[in-house]
């Protein structure tokens, strides 16, 4: 089984590319989605977050106030590291279980969509790394537009990750997503073809 790591920076276009991959019927494991599941009430990471960050980050019904937790951790590196140390082991556990299941089913290729693939040193899990790249100005503009955030908030999020320029040097293939969605689709198909994945 070939395992492709799909990564990028915040708002670089990973979700846009991951939709195209799923349209090709290639199985995809989404780390952001798992990250949401493991912090639901009743899950182990939830209790630890509630103990560490207190009721400020919870809604009255007990569910996690993601916006509030985000505003704390993207401004404070030590709090971000603390949250990562709670959530990331749970994400890895869920992901490795899903990878093993695909392997035992004899699946030919899967994609792991992991925003922090390089930061979390998970490239050892993958055979190839596909990076969705945009220039810093496009990244900032799209992030502010999508989230309705201020420039300060958006920059805090961008700066909590390894710069895309550095990630570009570490990837096996780069999709430049500065252009149109159609352009991006063409680059994706070329990368998959080069690795003998899909039709
Ligand atoms: C802080 C939280 C609650 C904010 O939630 P919110 O709904 O606003 O954002 P969402 O989860 O959709 O993440 C959006 C993007 O932010 C970036 N991001 C998220 N967490 C982090 C982090 N710890 N460090 C750097 N970038 C991050 C990623 O590019 C991600 O794609 C949430 O991001 C979270 O629980 N983060 C910790 C888990 C994690 O590291 N997830 C990302 C990688 S799997
Ligand atoms: N080629 C493109 N042209 C114009 N807008 C785009 C393009 N690609 C993505 N976008 C838009 O940019 C924003 C960010 O894209 P997307 O949500 O796919 O990024 P992401 O990398 O998955 O973000 P995150 O890390 O936050 O999950 C979205 O609003 C999306 O619609």
Automatic annotation (TrEMBL):
It holds the Pfam family CoaE. Its main location: cytoplasm. It catalyses: 3'-dephospho-CoA + ATP = ADP + CoA + H(+). GO terms for cellular component: cytoplasm. Its EC number is 2.7.1.24. CDD domains: DPCK. The lineage of its organism: Bacteria, Bacillati, Bacillota, Bacilli, Bacillales. It comes from the Bacteria. This is Dephospho-CoA kinase.
């Amino acid at each position: 089984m070939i395992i492709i790591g799909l990564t990028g920076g915040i708002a670089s276009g990973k979700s846009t590319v991951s939709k195209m991959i799923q349209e090709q019927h290639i199985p995809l494991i989404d780390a952001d989605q798992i990250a949401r599941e493991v912090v639901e009430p009743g899950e182990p990471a939830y209790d630890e977050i509630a103990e560490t960050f207190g009721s400020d980050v919870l809604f009255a019904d007990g569910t996690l106030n993601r916006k509030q937790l985000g505003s704390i951790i993207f401004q404070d590196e030590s709090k971000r590291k603390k949250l990562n140390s709670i959530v990331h082991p749970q994400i890895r556990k869920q992901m490795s279980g899903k990878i093993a299941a695909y392997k035992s089913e004899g699946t030919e290729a899967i994609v792991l969509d992991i925003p922090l693939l390089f930061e979390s040193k998970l490239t050892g899990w993958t055979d190839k790394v596909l990076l969705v790249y945009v220039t810093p100005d496009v990244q900032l503009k799209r992030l502010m537009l999508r989230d309705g955030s201020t420039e300060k908030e958006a920059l805090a999020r961008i700066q909590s990750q390894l710069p895309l320029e550095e990630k570009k040097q570490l990837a096996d293939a780069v999709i430049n997503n500065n252009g149109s969605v159609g352009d991006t689709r063409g680059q994706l198909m070329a990368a998959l073809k080069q690795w003998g994945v899909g039709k």
